[in-house]
Amino acid sequence: MKVTTQLEYGLCCIVALARLQVGDPASASDIAQSEKLPRQYVEKLLCRLKRSGIVRSVRGAKGGYLLARHPSELTVRDICDALDGGAYKLICEEESMRTKRCIPVSADGRCSLRFVWTELGSVINSYLGTVTVDALLSDGSCHTGKETPYQRPCTAGV
Amino acid sequence: MKVTTQLEYGLCCIVALARLQVGDPASASDIAQSEKLPRQYVEKLLCRLKRSGIVRSVRGAKGGYLLARHPSELTVRDICDALDGGAYKLICEEESMRTKRCIPVSADGRCSLRFVWTELGSVINSYLGTVTVDALLSDGSCHTGKETPYQRPCTAGV
DNA sequence: CCATACCCGACTATTTTTGTCAAGTTTTGC
DNA sequence: GCAAAACTTGACAAAAATAGTCGGGTATGG
Ligand code: FES
Ligand code: FES
Fold first, then answer.
1. CA B137/CA B67 separation, integer angstroms
2. Per DSSP, what are the bridge partners of residue A132?
3. Has this prediction a pTM greater than 0.90?
4. A122 near B147, Cβ under 8 Å?
5. A105-118: string of b/e by CB count within 10 Å (b at 16+)?
6. Cβ < 6 Å from ligand 1: which residues?
């Protein structure tokens, strides 16, 4: 399990945009250059980010991209959702897998592993939802250096 | 980001082994058949699980595999570590990426995104470490149906 | 009207993952 | 001892996912 470069690059672009929080828009080439990324790939990513309403664009000469929201109201999760269609996808979301495994594995029609994977998904999304782009700007300040353990919210009873 | 089938299959095998918690070992073919998985792939996975000390093997006729530890002392995380070399890998762990991105991105030699990805890693590993194979056996009993939010352990001050 | 820059789908290339093969080694039962 | 069962292993092939490119379009400011 690994973050895709799409995500890394996309997030880089967003951070770059957020840093330039001036009035006039930054062009895709500018961003690509400053982040040392392939220009056409950046365009593609920004295009998708636009469709999800994360960035706005201004066409024509002197045009470019702008953040659509304030960095403090934009989480890493939002960007994941826009780019990958979610940071985390269930393995059996694809039709082929679902019929091959999820259903037939256990008698009552449920893969006994399913809850682990769905819980994992919500843990991931939930964490990424706590990280704002704002926090990324102040480099390192958000990093506590401590472990960030997961606390099971409901161990006892049930 | 998605769980690999390696993991899904591997975990299935482990659960199958745990269910058969009798004295004599189960052969790879048995497991493959009961879980409807390709035999040779199962063999390969079990082999790796063996090297990490998750399962034991008995060679020769009537041989097969056994869990090396009690299901209550075996977490999903252990299995991830054995199979994928960890459930989660940092994108810039590979040499090529590291020199291309992680280092040069910010002035002090640190990608400003790095802490998100490392924290994400610890959140994932930490969660998977709370789920024992034991819990998987009692199908559904561990599933609370509720959300399992991530609570940032240290928001204030710092 | 032209240079800039967004828009977009189709396409290729690369890498990763998945799965197979074939040739071993070890042990049991007869 | 020998044959059959079953683990061991690395190399290889197939498939899928990801990364990245191309080329043509459209809008806009000067
Ligand atoms: S196949 Fe759906 S969770 Fe296992
Ligand atoms: S490249 Fe290492 S975290 Fe961004």
1. 14
2. A75
3. no
4. yes
5. beeeeebbbbbbbe
6. A 92, 101-102, 111, 113-114, 117; B 8
